[in-house]
Amino acid sequence: MKTLILSSSLSNSSRSFILCNEVFKCLSSKGSKCTMIDARNVSLRPTHNKPTIQMEALSKQIEETDNIIIGMGVHCYSINDSLKILLDNTFKNAIGKFYGILCAAGGEKSYLSTMHLTQICMNEWRMIQLPRIVYATEKDFTNEKISSKDLLKRIKIFTNDFYTIGNKLLS
């Protein structure tokens, strides 16, 4: 199973990147071939401009991967601008792919913000979502590391479900 993990935050201290990295380690230990993409290392341009070479390469990676995990931060109760740019420019070949969501937010009241991403992925590319989201808040982290045992448990459950269902969908 080939999994592309996309960390969409541009923040230097991105908690969604930390979530993506933890899931990367967990899935890799199960034998999944994982590729991690960090948006901080991608030259982004809005859709109306010609995509960058990096964005074209990412589009090709998305086409060739079996499934995708999207890490996002919450901005104004929705997805961030860098994720929107990545979706618009690189997901044209994500049709029908299985995906999961990892979300880092400042507080506990933004948990429905992931629904915007769900709507985009399901309506635009008819993607299939894992019906489990990892939602973390700033209280789950200390010194840019996961400090919550509950969050680590939820990541393990997410990873197990994603691995099991992802493999079944490929069969």
List the topology elements:
Elements: E1 2-7, H1 15-29, E2 33-38, H2 53-64, E3 67-73, H3 81-90, E4 98-105, H4 114-125, E5 128-137, E6 141-142, E7 145-146, H5 149-170
Helix pairs in contact: 1-5
Give a description of the structure:
The chain has 171 residues and is an alpha/beta fold. It has a single domain (2-170), classed as Rossmann fold, CATH 3.40.50. The chain is 42% helix and 24% strand. It contains five helices and seven strands. It has helices spanning 15-29, 53-64, 81-90, 114-125, 149-170; strands at 2-7, 33-38, 67-73, 98-105, 128-137, 141-142, 145-146. The protein has a five-stranded parallel beta sheet with strand order 2-1-3-4-5, sandwiched between helices. It has a two-stranded antiparallel sheet with strand order 6-7. α1 links the parallel β1 and β2 (33-38). α1 crosses α5 (149-170).
Key words describing this protein structure:
single chain; 171 residues; alpha/beta; Rossmann fold; two-stranded antiparallel sheet; 5 helices; 7 strands
Distance between the termini: 10 Å
Number of strands: 7
Uncertain ranges: none
State the order of secondary-structure elements, H for helix, E for strand: EHEHEHEHEEEH
Most strands sheet: 5 strands, parallel
The fold-level CATH name is Rossmann fold
State Rg: 15 Å
Helix fraction by DSSP (H/I, runs of at least 4) = 40-55%
How many discrete domains? Answer: 1
Please tell me the CATH architecture by its name: 3-Layer(aba) Sandwich
Q: Quick summary of this structure?
A:
The protein has helices at residues 15-29, 53-64, 81-90, 114-125, 149-170; strands at 2-7, 33-38, 67-73, 98-105, 128-137, 141-142, 145-146.
